Amino acid sequence: MKIVVIGGSGLIGMKLVKNLRQQGHEVVAASPSSGVNAITGEGLAQALAGAQVVVDVANSPSFEDKAVLAFFETSGRNLLAAETAAGVGHHVALSVVGTDRLLASGYFRAKMAQENLIKASPVPYTIVRATQFFEFVGSIAQSATEGQTVRLPPALMQPIASDDVAAVMAEAAVKDPLNGTMELAGPEPIRLDELVRRFLSANRDGRTVTTDAHAGYFGTPVNDQSLTPGDHPRLGPTRFEDWLRCTA
User: Fold this and answer.
1) Global confidence as pTM
2) CA 64-57-215 angle, 5° bins
């Protein structure tokens, strides 16, 4: 099966490409660095020729409100139009758990716009909404740091290892389209402040985490439902403590 991975040089993309190739599929790792650009349309038609499946795991290089919306709307329209022209039978997209609950954030509004374009397209689809990756806990800490203090709310999360996300995306790529959305989360819930506290401790980082119910998540207010999945999500097997031991 020919599978095109948009964002094939990113964190999830590289793992996904490797996973699918190990299964024996013909995989195109598509990204601007390989001459395939979903924003300009460059190389899309050639990359998609003969493809049965496209998996979109690309992310915006800028999280500024207007830029991120322009990225997901432009790339989404170009990609879905090229897929329709090429006769692609399955569009698989990586999105985020809580997208519809966090529309105060420009990033989540952009992801919602991306999802809506996918649903309106004639291409059969599967949307995989994943929780935050363990690999981005350091970025969460950095965004909430003032001096040596990290100010975070005690909101529940259920983060996941990127390896587990890539494995489920690879499964979704070779299955029939859901024409719907599935949720993917880590094996255990943990509060956001405690997650970062454990991460800093494991990395011998001297910053102190202060719990503040009014602090945001990248500036957006959150509660216990904002970042956690609904009923019956697919769960990745990797526990945060085990991941920390391997990476810290």
Assistant:
1) 0.95
2) 40
